Amino acid sequence: KAGVTQTPRYLIKTRGQQVTLSCSPISGHRSVSWYQQTPGQGLQFLFEYFSETQRNKGNFPGRFSGRQFSNSRSEMNVSTLELGDSALYLCASSLDVMVDTQYFGPGTRLTVL
Amino acid sequence: DAKTTQPPSMDCAEGRAANLPCNHSTISGNEYVYWYRQIHSQGPQYIIHGLKNNETNEMASLIITEDRKSSTLILPHATLRDTAVYYCIVLMSSNYQLIWGAGTKLIIKP
Q1: Which residue numbers in chain A have pLDDT < 70?
Q2: CA distance A2 to chain B (A)
Q3: Helix (H) or strand (E) holding A104
Q4: Contact B82, B15 (CB under 8 A)
Q5: B86 touches chain A (CB under 8 A)
Q6: Is the Cβ of A59 closer than 8 Å to some Cβ of chain B?
Q7: Share of chain B above pLDDT 70, in %
Q8: Which of A94, A105, B9, B98 could form a disulfide with B105 if both were Cys (CB 3.0 to 4.6 A apart)?
Q9: B97 interfaces chain A, CB cutoff of 8 Å
Q10: Residue B2, pLDDT score
Q11: What pLDDT was estimated at residue B27?
Q12: So what's the pLDDT on residue B90?
């Protein structure tokens, strides 16, 4: 069974731009969570989607948004990029609810210049 | 919210058992302990999880103390490929969020 895939793997943007990251979960997994990882803050939870609905949300500004499609694929969007948004963005999928084991993708490395 | 405390780094000789401790003294009765590892900026890899009883799988063993305030991850025969940052995480029962700490950087030495 294929693992979680994320595209693109690397991205360079400039301040003020917006970016969309994509995540394809493991087949049959309905929950998708997004995390931001930076050297200073570690892994921080952004939000979780289940059946196209945002079910949980972390403490990030409204510039960070996401959505989930009927096939469980998910996208996250960051508008008006800031230098501090440079990070590894990780997507994780689980079978049903978040209490199930989460399997992570390789991440998207975003650099904001 | 339950938090975890881990040593920032540990060394282990190749072929020996690596024992990684974790303190989670504020854990609630229905909160699970999860262990993941991350190898140099790759996505975290699931290792094992448990609630009350000790658990074992093909990768590792998880020993949880009877009062559930601490646990130990055991890699029985460490190899160089086990060098990674190991995260002990509590899954919050209120909203099923995984709360990540700083982890333990485990270095396996030949």
Answers
A1: 1, 97-99
A2: 15
A3: strand A103-104
A4: no
A5: no
A6: no
A7: 95
A8: B9
A9: yes
A10: 57
A11: 87
A12: 86
